[in-house]
Design brief:
By secondary structure, this protein is an all-beta fold. The protein contains no helices and 15 strands.
Length: 131
């Protein structure tokens, strides 16, 4: 288990599990088979990381970032549905020794999430509504 978080009301537990990474397929790299569990297991992603697992203030919605997945793209998963792929998310990377990365993903009024992303040479603030 990589990361664990509780909902704001303390009633739900969410966490990321992975298989592989570092020595996956006999090679050293960060790519692994990863999935989020919020009550039940979600879809598995072949990605470098799943970061910023976040639950809404009323604990009824969840979101997380998938980094460097299919074709090197990154996207946000909101309540199990994938958003638009981007080249990169803007984060505050703390260093290789840290077990987490602080990102910009936030719930906004429990009806959408916002985050900062890069697409080519363009930086944008994205608002992704609930599905």
């Amino acid at each position: 288990m990589e990361r664990t978080t509780f909902s704001p009301d303390g009633q739900r537990l969410a966490y990321v599990v992975s298989h592989g990474g570092h020595t996956f397929d006999g090679q050293e790299h960060s790519r692994a088979q990863r999935r989020v569990v919020v009550g039940r297991e979600g879809r598995q992603y072949d990605a470098d990381a799943l970061f910023n697992l976040t639950l809404s203030s009323d604990s009824s919605h969840f979101a997380f970032e998938v980094h460097n997945a299919d074709k090197g793209k990154s996207f946000v998963v909101l309540d199990g549905q994938e958003g638009k792929p981007y080249d990169e998310f803007l984060t505050n990377k703390m260093g290789w020794w840290e077990a987490w990365v602080q990102g910009t993903l936030r719930f906004r009024d429990d009806n959408s999430v916002t985050y900062l992303a890069r697409e080519g040479r363009k930086f944008c603030r994205v608002t992704q509504p609930l599905p």
